[in-house]
Design a protein that fits this description.
Shape: elongated
Radius of gyration: 30 Å
Strand order of the largest sheet: 1-2-3-4-7-6-5-8-9
Number of domains: 2
Number of strands: 9
Largest sheet: 9 strands, antiparallel
Order of helices and strands: HEEEEEEEEEH
CATH topology of the largest domain: Immunoglobulin-like
Helix content: 25-40%
Strand content: 25-35%
CATH superfamily of the largest domain: Macroglobulin (MG2) domain
CATH architecture of the largest domain: Sandwich
Structural class: alpha+beta
Number of helices: 2
CATH class of the largest domain: Mainly Beta
Length: 210
């Protein structure tokens, strides 16, 4: 009888543990879901928590990286352009880069590219642009051939007043912690109840037999 009760306790505890994991996992996915890309391919345009925008593209044997801050209306800014060999990450100095920015109505603005002292590094002067969505084209000429990387959906907009996304992330973290604590408390309480009930069951049977 004791072996049977012990096996039953283990079975019930295992079921409760699996249910708790499923409940918590489902809840965590619900709160943690956001607008981030979960695909396997690396996106060509990413944004850091500090607001830095990074555009990356492979052009033949080379890799091009264009990094700039958030673009605000009617404000000129500077960007950094890096050109390296894709396989070895070796900086490339013989390539000739060019940046052009196309607005939604088709007008094209040229960015000024200046070579820096560091190998494969350039400063790009982006002129003041009106608010709107733009397409940025990075052209790279090497050995008489020109390749172009196109980045669409580049937005020029006023800087956000508050970081609402950060606040939402903090709220999701707190909620997940609360749910996790509740699941642990429920799981511990059920295990305690099962153990107490199972240990007391033989005594009840002996009492009835007597």
């Amino acid at each position: 009888m004791k072996e049977f009760l012990a096996a039953q306790r283990i079975k019930i505890a295992t079921i409760i543990l699996l249910l708790s994991i499923l409940i918590f996992g489902s809840t965590a996915r619900t709160f943690a879901h956001g607008d981030e890309d979960h695909g396997n391919e690396k996106p060509k345009t990413t944004a850091s928590d500090k607001g830095t925008i990074l555009h990356t593209a492979r052009l033949g044997d080379f890799e091009l990286m264009l990094k700039h801050p958030l673009l605000t209306p009617d404000t000129a800014t500077s960007a950094r352009l890096f050109i390296t060999r894709f396989e070895t990450n070796e900086s490339i100095d013989k390539a000739i880069p060019a940046i052009e920015i196309e607005s939604a109505n088709g007008s094209i603005t040229q960015g000024t590219v200046e070579k820096n002292e560091a190998g494969g590094s350039y400063t790009v002067k982006i002129p003041a642009l009106p608010q709107g969505d733009y397409t940025v084209r990075a052209k790279l000429t090497y050995d008489g051939e020109t390749d172009t990387a196109t980045f669409s959906g580049v937005r020029v907009a006023p800087a956000p007043i508050a970081d609402s996304e950060s606040g939402m992330s903090w709220a999701r973290t707190v909620l997940i912690g609360i749910v996790f604590a509740l699941v642990l408390a429920l799981f511990g309480g059920l295990i305690y109840f099962i153990w107490r009930f199972a240990e007391g069951e033989p005594l009840s049977k002996e009492t009835v037999s007597a």
